[in-house]
Design a protein that fits this description.
- This protein is mostly helical.
- The protein folds into two domains: about 60 residues, no CATH class; about 30 residues, no CATH class.
- It contains four helices and no strands.
């Protein structure tokens, strides 16, 4: 995903000031009111971004087979860690009350 954004950023840079590249092709076609040229260049950009992203994903999955599944933990997990939404497991709520000193009373 991020490679596609980087590619689009490079094309925007070419669009603003370059002597060659897809960005210049888009700027030239846009200046000549050539909608077909603009869409063709954008289609080429999309195909290149998708192909590169799938290649990067393939290489990543091939090289990083050792990594464990990265599933998020929930508040109802036996470990009792803080889960989604900042909820604390029931077994830790009493612990938090005991360890946090009471604040000053404003009454």
């Amino acid at each position: 995903m991020s490679f596609g954004f980087a590619l689009v950023g490079a094309v925007v840079g070419e669009f603003l000031g370059a002597r060659q590249g897809i960005g210049l092709l888009i700027a030239t076609a846009q200046g000549a009111f050539n909608a077909n040229g603009v869409f063709a260049a954008m289609f080429i950009l999309a195909v290149v971004a998708l192909a590169a992203e799938s290649l990067i994903t393939l290489v990543e999955n091939r090289l990083l087979k050792w990594r464990p599944n990265q599933t998020p933990r929930r508040a109802s997990d036996p470990a009792g860690d803080v889960g989604w939404g900042g909820h604390v497991g029931a077994e830790h709520q009493g612990l938090l009350r005991e360890t946090v000193p009471p604040g000053p009373r404003l009454v």
